[in-house]
């Protein structure tokens, strides 16, 4: 392939694959004319990452409070941590199923 391109390319041409002249240009090969705002995209990804970390932190704080404090004055502590994890997974599954 590289020898074909080097032999058939003038100095001012960009390398291309050989195609039939009358063949329509496939969708995958067409150039994207939209410009990507990399700074805006990076800012959005950082904000999403920080949002995820924030909600993980809040989930941990809430779970810790549920597990270490009694429900009523002098009452028993919540002892079934597996139930909390199961509840979280079921709610997440229901949320994803509704999307």
Write a brief structural summary.
By secondary structure, this protein is mainly α. The chain has helices at residues 2-7, 38-68, 81-98.
Describe the protein.
The protein has 99 residues and is mainly α. The model has no long low-confidence stretch (mean pLDDT 77). It is 56% helix and 0% strand. The protein has 3 helices and no strands.
Could you describe the largest sheet, including whether it forms a barrel? none
Helix count equals 3
Strand content: under 5%
Structural class determined from secondary elements:
mainly alpha
What sequence of helices (H) and strands (E) makes up the elements?
HHH
The amount of helix comes to 55-70%
Average pLDDT reading = 77
Quaternary: single chain
Shape: elongated
The beta-strand count equals 0
What is the CA-atom radius of gyration, in angstroms? 29 Å
Which residues form runs of ≥5 with pLDDT under 50?
none
What is the end-to-end distance?
Answer: 46 Å
Give short descriptive properties of this protein.
99 residues, mainly alpha, 3 helices, 0% strand, elongated
Layout of helices and strands:
Elements: H1 2-7, H2 38-68, H3 81-98
